[in-house]
Every structure is written in C-alpha cells, then in structure tokens.
From TrEMBL:
GO terms for molecular function: phosphoenolpyruvate-protein phosphotransferase activity. It is found in: Cytoplasm. Its cofactor is Mg(2+). This is phosphoenolpyruvate--protein phosphotransferase. The gene is ptsP. The lineage of its organism: Bacteria, Pseudomonadati, Pseudomonadota, Alphaproteobacteria, Hyphomicrobiales. It comes from Rhodoplanes azumiensis. It comes from the Bacteria. Its main location: cytoplasm. It catalyses: L-histidyl-[protein] + phosphoenolpyruvate = N(pros)-phospho-L-histidyl-[protein] + pyruvate. NCBIfam families: PTS_I_fam. Keywords: Cytoplasm, Kinase, Magnesium, Metal-binding, Phosphotransferase system, Sugar transport, Transferase, Transport. Residues 24-170 form the GAF domain. Its EC number is 2.7.3.9.
Length: 755
C-alpha cells in the first residue's frame, strides 16, 4: 500500500490488540483512528456513525478539531460523507472541494484538506456509518488503500453492532444499528405477535477477523470453495435433480456463481488484506448485498438471494457448521425470520414457543402461509431484507392483520400493541361466549359455519370455534409436509383421525390439489409457462389414476360405517367429474369384493373454481351431491389476475357487482336443483364478505378458524332480509360504480354490525 507503515495486515493485527484492551468505547475509537491515520500516512481519519434519527454524527477523529466530536451532526444525504452513506459505496477524490456534493463544516477545520477517501461501514448490507481519511495534498488513493480501509470498516461495523457505542450517545441519538425499524409486507394471518427474533438460517457469527497466517487462510478458502463446488456437483447428479426442473435451474445458478472467477478473486483479495477466510466471505457478501439492495432491476435483486445462500454455505463450510439450524431450544415467544421457508420447516419448530413468522418471500396463498394460519401464529410475507434488518434476540412485533413488522420497537409502540393484543383477547373471549349459540340471523335465517383444515393441528379448532363441521379438508398438506410420498396406511390413519375428531360432524375431503405452484419435493416437477392453468389437481389425478385411487381407497376405508364426503378440485368439464366419480365407484366395488366394511353413505361433489363450469351448471348439478365454490381461484380466473401477484391481486374488488352476479347465479341454480352449496375462500372469512354473500343467498360457508367468531357475531345481529333488499337494488344499477363495499360498510354501521 503506497506510503503505508507496515501495510493492512499490520494495521489489522494492531487493531485486534486495541479491541482487546480494557478501555472505554471512546478511548478505543480514538486509538483506532490514530492507528488508521498512521498506517495510511493520512493526516485525517474520522469515524461517522449513523444515528437512529437518520443523521450522521462524528464519533472520533485524528486530524480534525477534536472539539467537534459528538457535536458535528449532518443529514445522511449531506456532503460527501452523506453520499458515501446513501450510496453504500466508496468515494475516492483527489480534490474533494471541487465535488458538487462537498459540504464544509467550519467547526471541524477540514477546509485545508483536499484529498478524500470515504468508505461505508457495512454489516449485512446495511450502512452503520462512514470511515474517512483525508490529506492536504491532492492525491488519489490506490485500490489497495481503498480495499484496506473497507476491511478496517468491517471491524468497526462489528464494534458498532455490539452496542459498545450506545453509552456515548445522547437519548434519541443512539447508533442506528439498534434503531427501531418499521417495514411493511403482505399480511398472511389474522393475528398479532410480540416476541424475539430467531433467524431460520442464522448468520454465522465471526469471532476471528484477523488472520495470523495469510497463506494458511488462502488455503482454507481454496479447500472450502472446492468442497462447496463438489457438493453442488453431487446435488446436481442426484436422481431427483438430474432430470431437470426449476430446482435444478437454481442449483445450476449456484454452481455458476461458485465457479465465478470474479467472486473468488474478490474473496482472495480480502484475505490478502489480512482477514480470515470466513471474515473475507462476510466482507465481500456485505459489499455485494449493499450494492444489490440498491438495484431496481428485479432480476439482479433476485440474484442477491443466490449470493446470500452461497456465501452462507461457504462460511458454514469454513467453520464446520451444519447447514440446518437448530430448532429445539427456542426462546419463549419466538418469531422466526427467514428469507423463505417450506411448510415442513415451520412445523419443525416447537409450537408451544412459536408466536410469529416474517418472510422475505411468500405471499398469502403460499404453502407456508396456510400452515401459519393453521398454527394460529402471526405472519407477514414479502418483507424486503428482513434477514438483514433483524438480529437474533431482537424484540419484534408482527402484525399479521396489517402486514406491519416492527423490529426493536420503541416502548410507546410496544405499549400500544400490548393494549391492542389485550383488546383482541377480550374480543376472542366474546366470540368464545358465542361458540355454542346457533348461527341464526336476527330474522331467523340459519347459516352453516364450517372451518377449513388440512393438518392434525387444525382439528382442535372444531371444538374451539363451535363450527358445525369441516367444509374443506385440504388433503395435499399431508403430502407437502412429508419428506416422501405418504403411504396409503399413513393417509388412512390421517383421514380416520380427522373423522374421529369430528365426532359425527360432516367433513368434506378435497382430493389432492397438487401441481402448479404446489410442488412436492419428491415428485418430478414439469415446468409450465402458466402453472395455475396447467397440469394440476384433478387433471393430474385423472392422468395418474393410481395416485387418486390410493387416496380415495384410504378415505373409503377410514370412513367405514360413517358418512363420507369427497370433493374434486379444478373440475373444468362435466366429463371430468364423471370420470372421477366413476373411479370412486370402482374403489367401492373393490372394497365390497374384498369384504371391507363400507361407509354408511358416500357423497361426491366438486369445487367450482373454473369459470367454464358456469356454462355447465345444470348438467353438473344433476350429477353432484353437493357443490363448493372456491372463491380464491374462481375470482383470479374471472379477472385473469394472479392472486399471488401484488401488482394485480388487489386490482379488482371481490365485492363488485360482476362477482356478486356470478356467485348469485351459482347459488340460485344450486337451490333450483335442491343441492347444497358452500363457499370456501377468503371472501367468506371476512365479515363484510360474508355479509355480501348472505345478501345474495349463500347460507353455508367454510372459513378460517379465526374467522368463525367475527362472522357469527355479525350475522347474529343481522336482519338478512334488509341486506338482501339493499344488495338487490345495488346489483340492478348500471356498473358505473361496480363495488358495493362502501354501501355495505355504511349499512353495517347503521345496523350496528361489527365488521
């Protein structure tokens, strides 16, 4: 390094000595800036720390006026220091005062210095401060000097993150690393949680930053990279990956990055500056994360996840850690924070200690969201950089109702949420008092309230809510959380347990709704351009009849001597229902022939979620025993709007006249044929949605368990005749104002209904 006294490795070793000295935080910082200035032959070295209020404060300096320490404060976008913080990138100038962003602070005495090198102090891609060196003479700092200063900034980042500098701050001006953070995402569950962060894949905690033997660290790095590459090659050659599919594409991308010479060269350069191999990985990845988080290109931002995962694997390889996190020692009130997660991984955690879930990926209809709702925990998805913002043990509030996440909340915020949780608890007690009351409107209209389920953990909700049955049992969840294809005996055991738990209450089993976005890890995945419209559900079942037959046989045997209701998903044509029903009849014949006791009664129905069935209603209703409207899929197909796409999911209001006309057509035709019709889906799980559905003639719903109480409370106070007349008049109006939401809300307020 040009003009340096001993080079970066000497500096890092001396920094390690200073970090170990039993001195105050201010003394340690003062010694550090002196060391850096001397090593880089710089006349000035200064440390600026980002504060909770978003400003930058001068915490230590060698060369500037020391009286300015803790007095000089600037906006985070002010001057060259602010530019470094905002861009999270080094700035190297031989004439700083000529730069348009230059800002002069007279109390520092910096007007005599021309050259400027500033680097961000980064941790997990987040800016914690800025480290600056300056000289009077005009000079451009070498690449090696920039690299050395960035490496030194990494050590400072850990010092700031440790909380050591908090004692130097005025109240309300603490370092931003511990600042309260508010981020918003997609609300996944109707629940609120206060707890402490547990990272699903915890960052590797590096305790040794400074290398004693650089050549040894280079060898360690080389061995770890080769081992990582070999592991990826082995995974790509394994049976289930070798045939192709999206998961193979992901691993191919990982392998490409692992062989990228530019990435490896950066790691080697970081080690040469004096870092240990694992610290070098942390340093390079933090720089990469900071740069990519500021990209607007969604493809580049998506690649950040790949680099994160690759760096995580390499660090664990270097330190000999297992890739799987430990889950058996959760703190009380644990909130899991993860980039992404499958439903099986969530179920691995101790349910008694688990309170919430925060995901960078995963929308309301993702598999893990379904399981989170079944567990009754608060969950929020699509939270940008969640794993980079939170540290293990941080206090966190997860608002699954609004989609808000508060990391390290202020006492006032925490107190407000504690009160909100208490209010919700009191409301739940009120709903509990309604559990055994019949669901009958004020004018005597009975309404059937059932619950959606799919796992054994859902079954206690039947008794807790007072629901009259399970209107939708998603059988695919058993397959999604299993490591391998569930045997017929395992399916039989589950279905029997469900019927036992229902204790005579009706249960509607939906046959496997897999394919599309519901990929089973142990089944070959066929890539499709439009998976929601592709080879899934009953289409897969009819094309692979052995799969459907084994499931139907398990259901029939589980229901021996009892009533059984089987429902087929994604039926698009009457002949598909005929084929599926014929398969049930063949299985009944098989069991009868082999002397098995048969169910007392078998009813066969279908989900109505494909718009094509709207034009086959009469033919379909002549064949089915019952009908269930899958409003989630039906509405997305009606509007050609992917419900998992945040840009279009809320573009159309489900309480619009076109939707209500379609749903009224279904319920009217079902009534004309004397067939029962139930609506399953999110629309029925909100009181205002249930209000609209009652108004057009629906009298049976299958809801989220948490929705039974609020919906029942609303309908007990409802005059159904009044709302029927209101909505009928609204539906007769021209479609200029297509949504009836505002009118229904006003009606509810006037009638004293709780929405």
């Amino acid at each position: 390094m040009r003009g340096a006294l001993g080079g970066p490795r000497v500096l890092l070793r001396r920094l390690r000595e200073v970090m170990a000295e039993p001195v105050s935080a201010q003394e340690r910082l003062d010694k550090i800036v002196v060391l850096i200035a001397a090593n880089m032959v710089a006349e000035v070295c200064s440390v600026y720390v980002l504060r909770v209020d978003g400003t930058l404060e001068l915490y230590a300096t060698e060369g500037l006026n020391r009286q300015a320490v803790h007095l000089t404060v600037m906006r985070s976008d002010e001057g060259l220091v602010g530019l470094v913080a905002t861009e999270a990138s080094p700035i190297n100038l031989n004439d700083a005062q000529a730069h348009p962003a230059f800002s002069y602070r007279p109390e520092t005495g910096e007007e005599i210095y021309r050259s400027f090198l500033g680097v961000p102090i980064l941790r997990a891609g987040n800016t914690l401060g800025v480290l600056v060196v300056q000289n009077r003479a005009r000079r451009t700092y070498s690449e090696e000097e920039v690299e050395a200063l960035q490496t030194t900034a990494m050590v400072l980042a850990e010092m700031i993150a440790s909380g050591e500098l908090t004692s130097l701050a005025q109240p309300g001006a603490e370092p931003a690393v511990r600042r309260p953070v508010h981020v918003s995402g997609a609300a996944l569950t109707d629940a609120i949680a206060l707890g402490h962060v547990v990272l699903h894949e915890p960052r590797v905690v590096i305790t040794n930053f400074i290398a004693d033997d650089v050549q040894k660290e280079l060898r360690r790095l080389g061995v770890a990279i080769e081992t990582l590459r070999a592991e990826l090659d082995l995974m790509l050659e394994s049976g289930e990956v070798a045939e192709g599919g999206e998961h193979r594409d992901v691993l191919e991308a990982y392998r490409m990055f692992a062989h990228d010479r530019g990435w490896v060269h950066k790691l080697e350069e970081a080690v040469i500056t004096g870092l240990t191999a694992e610290a070098a990985v942390e340093r390079v990845q933090s720089d990469t994360r900071a740069r990519m988080l500021r990209q607007t290109d969604p493809y580049l931002r998506e690649r950040l996840h790949d680099f994160d995962d690759l760096a995580h694997r390499l660090q664990r390889q270097l330190l000999g850690y297992d890739h799987a996190p430990t889950r058996d020692k959760l703190p009380e009130h644990a909130v899991i924070v993860a980039r992404s997660m499958g439903p099986a991984a969530l179920l691995d955690y101790d349910r008694n200690r688990l309170r919430g879930l925060v995901l960078e990926e995963g929308g309301p209809n993702s598999h893990v969201a379904i399981v989170a709702r079944a567990l009754g925990i608060a969950a929020v998805g699509e939270v940008p950089n969640a794993t980079g913002l939170a540290d293990p043990g941080d206090a966190v509030i997860v608002d699954g109702v609004t989609g808000d996440v508060h990391i390290r909340p202020t006492p006032d915020m925490e107190a407000a949420y504690v009160e909100r949780v208490r209010l919700r608890a009191r409301r739940q007690l009120q709903y509990l008092s309604l559990r055994d009351k019949p669901a009958v409107t004020k004018d005597g209209q009975p309404v059937t309230l059932m619950i959606n389920a799919g796992l054994p953990i859902d079954l206690p909700h039947l008794a807790e809510t007072g629901a009259v049955g399970i209107g939708l049992f998603r059988t695919e969840l058993q397959f999604m959380v299993a490591a391998q294809f569930p045997r017929t005996s395992e399916q039989l055991a589950l279905y029997r347990n469900v019927l036992d738990a229902a204790a005579g209450k009706p249960v509607v089993f939906r046959t496997l709704d897999i394919g599309g976005d519901k990929v089973l890890p142990y089944m070959r995945n066929y890539e499709e351009e439009n998976p929601a419209l592709g080879w899934r559900a009953i289409r897969l079942g009819l094309d692979r009849p052995g799969l459907l037959r084994s499931q139907v046989r398990a259901m029939l045997r589980a229901a021996s001597g009892r009533e059984l209701r089987i429902m087929f998903p994604m039926i698009a044509a009457v002949h598909e229902f005929d084929e599926a029903k014929g398969l049930v009849e063949r299985e009944l014949t098989h069991l009868r022939r082999h002397g098995h006791r048969l169910p007392e009664r078998v009813e066969v129905g279908t989900m109505l979620e494909v718009p094509a069935l709207l034009f086959q209603l009469d033919e379909l209703l002549e064949r089915v025993d019952f009908l269930s409207v899958g409003s989630n899929d039906l509405l997305q197909f009606l509007f050609a709007a992917d419900r998992g796409n945040a840009r279009v999911a809320n573009r159309f209001d489900p309480l619009s006249v076109p939707v209500l006309r379609v749903l009224k057509l279904i319920v009217d035709r079902a009534n004309a044929h004397g067939k029962s019709v139930t609506l399953c889906g999110e629309l029925a799980s909100k009181p205002i949605g249930a209000l609209a559905l009652i108004a057009i003639g629906f009298r049976a719903f299958s809801l989220l368990p948490s929705a039974v109480g609020p919906v029942k409370a609303m309908l007990l106070d409802l005059d159904a005749g009044k709302v029927e007349r209101l909505v009928a008049s609204l539906m007769a109006l021209p479609l200029g104002s297509a949504s009836v939401r505002a009118k229904l809300t006003a009606f509810a307020e006037a009638e004293g209904l709780s929405l």
